[in-house]
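Please fill in the sequence for the structure shown.

STRUCTURE ENCODING:
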């Protein structure tokens, strides 16, 4: 029996996230935390540190993009396929500030064949600060080994 027959989709998503997280030095190094994960969705948080603000003294857009990209990555890798970004675009709506806890919620819009589209909303509290859209591409491999029984 393969791994998908032995685990629920939610269990698969969590196990894939755990496997990815173990190797994700970038997200860990930026202080990100996965707070929710499931098939086709992920919520990841990050607090804006002093080394993440730019000359305007607001959160550097590159860090906001990186948070959104990480949430996108965990959402699109939640089906036990190895998936990478093919494209990502972000619209900044409001600035993040020093000390803000940014919350990136990624959700699957469509997935078929080797391609997928995911939207990520980045918020501080109830305020939307950015909207991200990512296009994914499946590559060879899986996160979880097949299990023989």
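FILLED IN BY: designer on duty
SEQUENCE:
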């Amino acid at each position: 029996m393969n791994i998908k027959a032995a685990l629920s989709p939610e269990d698969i998503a969590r196990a894939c996230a755990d496997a990815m997280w173990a190797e994700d030095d970038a997200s860990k190094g930026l202080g990100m935390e996965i707070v929710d994960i499931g098939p086709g969705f992920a919520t990841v948080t990050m607090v804006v540190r002093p080394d993440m603000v730019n000359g305007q003294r607001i959160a550097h857009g590159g860090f906001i993009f990186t948070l959104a990209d990480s949430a996108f990555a965990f959402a699109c890798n939640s089906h036990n396929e190895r998936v990478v970004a093919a494209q990502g675009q972000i619209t900044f709506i409001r600035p993040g500030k020093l000390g803000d806890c940014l919350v990136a919620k990624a959700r699957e819009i469509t997935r078929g064949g080797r391609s997928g589209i995911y939207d990520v909303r980045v918020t501080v509290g109830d305020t939307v600060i950015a909207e991200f859209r990512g296009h994914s591409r499946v590559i060879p491999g899986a996160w979880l080994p097949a299990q023989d029984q």
